[in-house]
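Posting this for the archive.
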Amino acid sequence: MFLTALLVGLCCAGASGDVAEPFWTDPDSRAAQQAAEWRRAGRTADATLMDRIADRPQAEWLNGPNPGPVVRARTLAAEQAGRIAVLVAYYIPNRDCGQYSSGGASSAASYRAWIDEFATALGNRGAYVIVEPDAVAQVVAGCTRVVAKDRYALLAYAVDRIKRRPHTRVYLDAGNSGWIPQPWNLVAALRTAGVARADGVALNVSNFQTDQASSTYGDQLSNYLGGKHYVIDTSRNGNGPYAGTDSWCNPPGRALGEPPTTRTGNPRLDAYLWIKRPGESDGLCRGGPAAGRWWPAYALGLARNARR
């Protein structure tokens, strides 16, 4: 009953803020484990800083085979807590155009089966699902490893299958304002990739563009897409983008951004979310570990630089 009421509230939360912080926080996240480890070692000040990450909801990335058990476990834990999970489907073939996060399904058929398993595991519990970060923008930017129509067909399949699940909100990734600066350049691709079936688009995933830049971009994109809504990843944008080279990859001096909430003050902006997990590396650059690996020193810097 509580979850039903919560999900009803979510339909209007971007406009009214009726349910401001509905998202589930993993009590056993890497940040929570790190904070506990540092407390045992007497590093209480650092542990307190790490709590700025550990105590806030973050997305769960499904980026390997057999997503069902994790999807089921996370959505069930969220339901039992009277909250809702945020999940990222990240298994498209030729993922990340062969860069640091390369991988994904071996074929179109295996990807469709993976999506079917993901969607089935959601049951009727609901979730916010971000579909395939970078997958559209990389094609628009000129990735030659993929055939555009084939990728867009797979994305449309993913959006359709996941959106069929009850209480599930789906956001197709649309890059960020610094990558494809003219939002109209994404419109045809997003339409072909099934955005009409989605609740909206996700912006700034794993990036550092400011809330203002992202919301301006999102509103412009929304106008081209018939009023589609959007969410913004605010996990690491507290100090905005880095001015140096390779600004997307473990840039120094960044900070945690706005904590996850549906109280945005913008009727088209459904939520600020921490989609990228703060403290997980972007890849083998600036001394960081492989993409997605936990990097305590970087996490601590993000927390230390945060305004709250």
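The two ends are 34 Å apart (CA to CA). The chain has eleven helices and seven strands.
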